[in-house]
Amino acid sequence: MNMRRGVLNTLFAFVSIVGAAFASAASAQNYPTRPIQMIVPFPPGGIADSSARIVAASLSSALGQPIIIENRGGSGGNIGVDIAARATPDGYTLLMTPNSPLTMNPFMFKAYPINPTRDVVPITMVGEGYIGLVVLASSPFHSVKDVIEAAKAKPGELTFGNIGVGSSHYVAGALLNKKANIETISIPFQGGGPALQSLLGGHISMSYTTLSAAIPYVNAGKMRLVAVVENKRLAQFPDVPTIAETVPGVTTSTWMGLFAPRGTPQPIIDKLNQVTTKVLGSSEVLEKLASVGILAKASTPEELGKTVQEDLDFWREAIATAGLGPK
Fold first, then answer.
1. Is residue 48 included in any domain, yes or no?
2. Which among 16, 119, 224, 284 could bridge 85 via Cys, Cβ 3.0 to 4.6 Å?
3. What's CA 162's distance to the chain center, in Å?
4. Does a structural domain hold residue 288?
């Protein structure tokens, strides 16, 4: 009797698992049947918001349902990430975010709210962004070496614009200070635009900025691109050196990714990956993302998960090296 009961229990469990799998697959086939909320953990107007709106518009058309952007800024992106991670995992709440709230903030905030490798599920990489160091065209700085020599000659007098403590822009400046043994002063701004305007006005010595924001000024002869903050030269600017060529280790990484709350059914993750990958391959979306400084680049969920882990390892060391710590 006990053996029979055991067999029946095993059979019941198997049928339940199979039934749940079929139900999940059927749900994914019909998904979505109502509007989707896409949380962006920063205020409107920035590169994160602009990228999300570009992708959401085309993704909405492909899925046949509205995608509503919810800007939940605050605490360096932590508030929006926390809201997304705790949402119902049914595919109707997504998170579009740059890497900083997931892979930098865990080492910058004492009360970081989530586990970035557990509480959100990767869907796809959206694209990569690039950061450069720019000065006025009239500046005497033509190279990173020039900046270092001037900073050593006048400690604490040179200033660099950035978009706040914890940003890739800020960490790049802090890393250069640390590794080159210089003292330049951080001047934070509410966005890259205001930082560049301050540079144009002669109020700061230089600025770290997304390339898309700076290139129009460079092309107009108003600014000079001194270097890029990457691990290798960019194909678009083969003659522009990296900072790391002069000071090894001064690199950053910037990307945008699409995520869902933990527990979102795998068939829905797979469907979102397939549809978003197709959207990112369209020439219209490619051009629009490029215009805001993002080079479209789709990935599998597994590839994005690997990128998150590699980024966590990178920023743990970079933030410690720069002498930064939790708030």
1. yes
2. 119
3. 16
4. yes
The pLDDT tens digits of the residues spanning 277-289 come to 999 999 999 999 9
Letter for the amino acid at 315? Answer: W
> Residues 6 or more apart from 285 whose CB is under 8 A from it?
54, 55, 58, 279, 296
On whether both 147 and 207 belong to a single domain, the answer is yes
Residues linked to residue 36 through DSSP beta bridges, in sequence order: 67
Q: Please give the single-letter amino acid code of residue 250.
A: V
What CATH number is attached to the domain comprising 316?
Answer: 3.40.190.150
* Partner residues linked to 209 by β-bridges: 132
Residue 23 clears pLDDT 60, i.e. is over it: no
Whether residue 14 has pLDDT greater than 80: no
Query: Residue 39: enclosing H or E segment and its boundaries?
Result: strand 36-40
Helix 168-180 with 301-321: angle, nearest 10 deg: 40
Cβ 207 vs Cβ 134: under 8 Å? yes
Cα–Cα distance, 244 to 222 (Å, whole number): 25
- Domain extent, residue 70, equals 33-128+253-321
pTM above 0.90?
no
Tokens matching residue 298: 């789709």
**How far is it, in rounded angstroms, from Cα 199 to Cα 290?**
24
- List CB contacts of 193: < 8 A, sequence separation 6 or more: 213
